[in-house]
Amino acid sequence: MEAFRRTPLLLSLLLSLLSTATATSFIPNISIYIDCGAKDPITLSKDSPPRIFNVDDSYLQSDKNTLSLSNPNNSSSGSLYSTARVSSSSFTYKFNNMDPNTFNVLRLHFLPFSAPSYELSTAKFSVHALNYILLDNFTVADTASPTIKEFFLWTESSDMEVQFIPQSNSIAFVSAIEAFIAPQEMLNSSNPKPIGDPTLSVDLVKQVLETVYRVNMPGPLITPHNDTLWRTWVTDDPYIYSADGSKKTSVSTSLTYVPSQGSSEEIAPPTVYNTARSMNLSEVQFISNPGFNINITWSFSVDSGYHLIRLHFCDIISETNSLDQGLVFTVYIMNYSALTNNLRISDYTTYSQEPFYIDFIAHVMSAQNITVSISMDRTDSKIRNAFLNGLEIFKVNNLTTKKNHPAVILGATIGGVIVIALILSCIVVVSIKKRHQKRTPDVKETHLLWSPMTRGVNSIDNSSKSGGATTIGASPRVDLGLLISLAQIKMATDNFDEKNQIGVGGFGKVYKGVLSNGVKVAVKRASSRSQQGFPEFQTEIEVLSQIRHRHLVSLIGYCDERSEMILVYEYMEKGPLRNYLYGNESPSLSWKQRLEICIEAAKGLHYLHTGYSQTIIHRDVKSTNILLGEGYSAKVSDFGLSKLGASIGETHVSTAVKGTFGYLDPEYFKTQKLTDKSDVYSFGVTLLEVLCARPVIDQSLAREEINLAEWALMWLSQGQLEKIIDPRLVGEINENSLRKFGEIAEKCLQEYGMDRPAIGDVLWNLEYCLQLQETEVRREPYEDSGTSEAHFPAVPFVRRMPSSVVSHETATSGDSRSDITNSNVFSQLISGEGR
Ligand SMILES: *[C@@H]1O[C@H](CO)[C@@H](O)[C@H](O)[C@H]1NC(C)=O
Ligand SMILES: *[C@@H]1O[C@H](CO)[C@@H](O)[C@H](O)[C@H]1NC(C)=O
Ligand SMILES: *[C@@H]1O[C@H](CO)[C@@H](O)[C@H](O)[C@H]1NC(C)=O
Ligand SMILES: *[C@@H]1O[C@H](CO)[C@@H](O)[C@H](O)[C@H]1NC(C)=O
Ligand SMILES: *[C@@H]1O[C@H](CO)[C@@H](O)[C@H](O)[C@H]1NC(C)=O
Ligand SMILES: *[C@@H]1O[C@H](CO)[C@@H](O)[C@H](O)[C@H]1NC(C)=O
Ligand SMILES: *[C@@H]1O[C@H](CO)[C@@H](O)[C@H](O)[C@H]1NC(C)=O
Ligand SMILES: *[C@@H]1O[C@H](CO)[C@@H](O)[C@H](O)[C@H]1NC(C)=O
Ligand SMILES: *[C@@H]1O[C@H](CO)[C@@H](O)[C@H](O)[C@H]1NC(C)=O
Ligand SMILES: *[C@@H]1O[C@H](CO)[C@@H](O)[C@H](O)[C@H]1NC(C)=O
Ligand SMILES: *[C@@H]1O[C@H](CO)[C@@H](O)[C@H](O)[C@H]1NC(C)=O
């Protein structure tokens, strides 16, 4: 079995090496291409890699009543369409060895022709596959060009049967068939956003998706030879309402696909992303009429039912890196604003010209048109434009032949899934262990041949066969697509060489590494005696694989081979913010730099708190979890402790206290009730740390100085915060900026969460603080107080942790041991949790 399966893989890998056209072509490890009715195999040499369509005999279940017909019109001889399999009774193709529990692509080709006594264009028939009805009362009238029907079929078993059923007194025919496993990232991670009805949620798994439109905006036409999955992408001319006010844009520069964010050339090739239709408007139009706006609208006629709408974007419009926020615009689908907010490109991408897509699900009540419009945003965006690169519409079809297939409708929120995942995590541990036992070295070899970002070939296969399959299936958000083999990680880190170690955390050691494709990564390896256990590992994978934002560190992959728990992140060149504050040789940061870092970190947190239907609470905000990259751009890291916030109607989640001492929200500590305001508290402590450049707990100091939050609040209450700021900042900070900053920190540190501002307010105020610093406007000291919220109450003396707990700490200023997550004391705090 293994040998049988490996052969086509190696063959196709060889083919791909020989093909010069596109080196990155998708090579499904299981693929069946047949030229129905043909006497000899046919090679499509223009495909890259070239594909061979075999004769269909060996797949045909009962060939007694079928005919192999040739097109008597020689013009098409030698093509896929010069023959057809025809019958006046049902016939079935059976494909064995398909991958179970995954989406397979099934593509049916039809080109009717006239043969003596058979007129294929009048054939009327149905096609069933597995127990789905793919086509019903189907006729193909177009005799000039082939009709291709494409389906993404959720396949549970390894056998796929495709049945052609003619209507009485008619015939059924087919010209060619393709069946191959869909790239794993294609649909598995789809979490479509509802259009119109916010409760709309369709689990795509166990359904059939029929491709109804696939459009490259504005063009050119992409033929199967040019596409990574042999698809056809048509131009948008037939669908655009009015091309006035729009223009075609294209670039020839290379794009940055980020596989860990779900983008790949298989999702859509560069030819889709390097062209776009955008607004054609001149500055003059805005000068004379600042409110000017238009919609660019496309319209697609569809049947009634559920439809998955996939919009492809790649910002080839903005000047590279010229603007902080990049482009912001509005997307409408069927007259509904498709996203809760506007589409902010920077929320979806990290790099310039990075492709991404967004999925939507819409319920079309009666046969009508799905319209998609893009329009400028004039409030939020610095540049006024809007664009679209590509579009696909799939009809969600769950029509079954037998008894109704139960459509599993889950709350597709990551919330439900994470909660389920956490509950089941113990069971998953067991099943993952089983998986490990079943792995064979052979499969690993083939896995290595794939690029580092490719899919976890082995584990998926085995999990579906092992008894643990259902358990794994219950936790679909553990994205197996991010699996990286231990061998690759060892290679990247020189077998976890000490010289590559860049840190130690509660989780284990962190190494720097370079993957075989040259991408620099940070590798976080759990030590066997790690205090953070498997649930955190899972949470981190689940949360991180769901969210992407330029101010949140992205997860590139993970490895759970043997008893390893390894997380692989994008590498942040300059390391944790704390290293630039105190106790390290690193250069000191200017006040402006520090403010910018705080602003960026607040943006990351803001995204966690509000970017999803459910609030994600970080739970461990601190200066070591804010990482700096090139140019000191900041990203929030370490989601191992993240928790989903309360859902609507509740105000908090109850949970055993976790976090890092000194940053911990006292209200949370007392009540065990976690809210997003707990992060705001920790962020407030971090702000003080940035300002004062000292550890948040420093046992070497006098008693009243030990806790930074307490110490700073005392000085704040006396209006003398400047007395304790980082000496390196003295003379540099504008006094208004400092005062504002103090106010922000103070508000974050309010004893009760409800008195603290939301992180969005904090962000806004920090931006204001930066403005005050930059404009150097002289103001009366209290002139701008309370610009955002009414007034600040007098500083209360917030009750901190009992100092008996504090006094156990051995933290010394500056060294990593002051990170109290690792300390004995902290582990007692959390020991009741049964990690
Ligand atoms: C033969 O093919 C040509 C071009 O494809 C088409 O115009 C013509 O109608 C066909 N003739 C028959 C008999 O199918
Ligand atoms: C079809 O092609 C074959 C060989 O290619 C040729 O012998 C035959 O005459 C052609 N038939 C017609 C109708 O053109
Ligand atoms: C298909 O055609 C048959 C007979 O013409 C009819 O009974 C059946 O309802 C049709 N099905 C659909 C979906 O139109
Ligand atoms: C598609 O490939 C053909 C060669 O097979 C080439 O001539 C054509 O320009 C390509 N089109 C696009 C859009 O890349
Ligand atoms: C863009 O608009 C200008 C005038 O506003 C027009 O001259 C030009 O032809 C338009 N370009 C396209 C591609 O429509
Ligand atoms: C519906 O979409 C089709 C293209 O799919 C278009 O030709 C037609 O004009 C549209 N109809 C309406 C009412 O917008
Ligand atoms: C959207 O609005 C336009 C114009 O207001 C209207 O003609 C069209 O029917 C609407 N479409 C839907 C799907 O409601
Ligand atoms: C664009 O279309 C949306 C949805 O149909 C509509 O609400 C909005 O007013 C339109 N904008 C303009 C400028 O026409
Ligand atoms: C198909 O799915 C829709 C929504 O997901 C559901 O309402 C309907 O009952 C399903 N039908 C069958 C036959 O499963
Ligand atoms: C084929 O590859 C997919 C991932 O692309 C994997 O899930 C599956 O297990 C592989 N099947 C075999 C037989 O190697
Ligand atoms: C895709 O999702 C299904 C069900 O959620 C799961 O069984 C399967 O393992 C997933 N495959 C990958 C590659 O994530």
Could you characterize the architecture of this molecule?
Mean pLDDT is 76; it is low at 1-24, 403-478, 646-650 and 777-835. The strands form eleven sheets. Strands 1, 7, 12, 15, 16, 17, 18, 22, 26 and 29 form a ten-stranded mixed β-sheet that branches. With 835 residues, the chain is of the alpha+beta class. It has four domains: 31-181, Jelly Rolls, CATH 2.60.120; 193-397, Galactose-binding lectin (Jelly Rolls, Sandwich); 462-570, Phosphorylase Kinase, domain 1, CATH 3.30.200.20; 580-810, Transferase(Phosphotransferase) domain 1 (Transferase(Phosphotransferase), domain 1, Orthogonal Bundle), CATH 1.10.510.10. It has 18 helices and 41 strands. It binds 2-acetamido-2-deoxy-beta-D-glucopyranose (11 copies). The site of one 2-acetamido-2-deoxy-beta-D-glucopyranose (NAG) has 5 residues, from strand 21. Residues 1-23 form the signal peptide. Residues 496-769 form the Protein kinase domain.
